Amino acid sequence: MSEHVGPEVVEQLIQAVSRLYAKQIMAERRAAQPDSERMEKLKAKVAACAADQEALSGADEREMTDLATRYAALRKELGGS
Known about the structure:
Blueprint (H helix, E strand, L loop, with lengths): L6 H24 L5 H20 L5 H17 L4
Helix pairs in contact: 1-2, 1-3
């Protein structure tokens, strides 16, 4: 993502990734034997998403582009569209 990316686009990407992690948490909770370590890692990733979303208000163009690139890759990796 080399073009200018607005904060709304980045926020949408972060929210999409956060929702994908939340789905994984729910699936883990419903598992016959939930993996508590995996759940904690997923919860930490959701918290990181929230922190990045908060940081958007002070992010410059380069930081927004970096976040957009990272979250677009994460969304793809997690199976989001």
